[in-house]
Design brief:
Layout (H helix, E strand, L loop, with lengths): L1 H43 L5 E15 L2 E14 L4 E14 L2 E8 L2 E3 L3 E15 L2 H13 L1 E16 L2 E2 L3 E13 L9 E2 L1 E3 L1
Length: 199
C-alpha cells in the first residue's frame, strides 16, 4: 500500500519535471533566435530606402468627348543607403491616378540595385483614348486651363533582398508620390517630390 502511494507521488513529479524541461528548452530557443536576429541586425545595419520623384512631365494632353489622350514621363530616384543589403526589383508597375481614377499604367524591366547606390528609374505611361467620368473630365479641363495638373504616382514592385550570398523571399514594395504637379509649359521647373514607402 505504501509502495503504491510513493509511485503515485513520483509520477506527477516526473510529469512536472518534463514540462519544466520543455519550457526551459523553448525559452532558451527563443533567446537564441532573438540573439541571432540582433547580431544580424547589428552586422547588416538596415537603413530606410529613400524614393524621390526627380522629374515628371506630360505631353500631347488632349481632352475630347470625355476621353483623354496623354503621355506621362517620370524619373524616380531610388536610394539604397545600406552598406550590406542589395535589392532585386523583379516586377515593377507604374500607375498615374487622378481623383482615384487611373489615367495610365505601365510596367518596366526588372533591375538589380547594389548597396550604397542611387538608381534612376525612367517610365513612360500613355493614356490612349481613356474614358473619363464626367466629373473627372470637367476637373481635368479646368486644371488644363490653369496650365498644370496634380496627379498621384504609384509604384508597386516585387523585391528580394540580398546579403552576401543569401537572398530573401519576395516582398511587396509600394511607393506613393502624392500631389505631383505637372506643368504644360516646358519652361516651368519640376519640383522634386519625396515619396511614401510601404514595405
Amino acid at each position: 500500500m505504501a509502495n503504491n502511494t510513493a509511485q503515485a507521488t513520483q509520477q506527477p513529479a516526473k510529469h512536472f519535471n518534463l514540462v519544466r524541461c520543455v519550457a526551459t528548452c523553448l525559452l532558451a530557443l527563443i533567446v537564441l533566435v532573438g540573439l541571432a536576429a540582433l547580431i544580424n541586425w547589428l552586422v547588416i545595419r538596415p537603413k530606410r530606402f529613400v524614393y524621390t520623384l526627380e522629374n515628371g512631365s506630360v505631353q500631347n494632353f488632349n481632352l475630347t468627348d470625355n476621353h483623354l489622350n496623354a503621355t506621362f514621363d517620370f524619373v524616380l530616384g531610388a536610394y539604397n543607403p545600406s552598406s550590406k543589403i542589395s535589392v532585386y526589383y523583379d516586377h515593377i508597375e507604374f500607375t498615374v491616378t487622378y481623383e482615384d481614377q487611373t489615367l495610365a499604367f505601365n510596367t518596366i524591366d526588372p533591375f538589380f540595385q547594389p548597396h550604397r547606390n542611387v538608381t534612376r528609374v525612367e517610365s513612360k505611361l500613355e493614356a490612349l483614348n481613356l474614358a473619363l467620368s464626367p466629373s473627372t473630365f470637367k476637373d481635368l479641363t479646368i486644371e488644363k486651363s490653369s496650365g498644370e495638373i496634380d496627379v498621384d504616382v504609384h509604384l508597386m514592385s516585387r523585391i528580394r533582398f540580398k546579403v552576401g550570398t543569401w537572398k530573401s523571399n519576395h516582398h511587396t514594395l509600394r511607393i506613393v508620390c502624392s500631389s505631383v504637379t505637372l506643368h504644360f509649359s516646358w519652361y516651368k521647373h519640376f519640383e522634386k517630390k519625396p515619396c511614401e514607402v510601404e514595405l
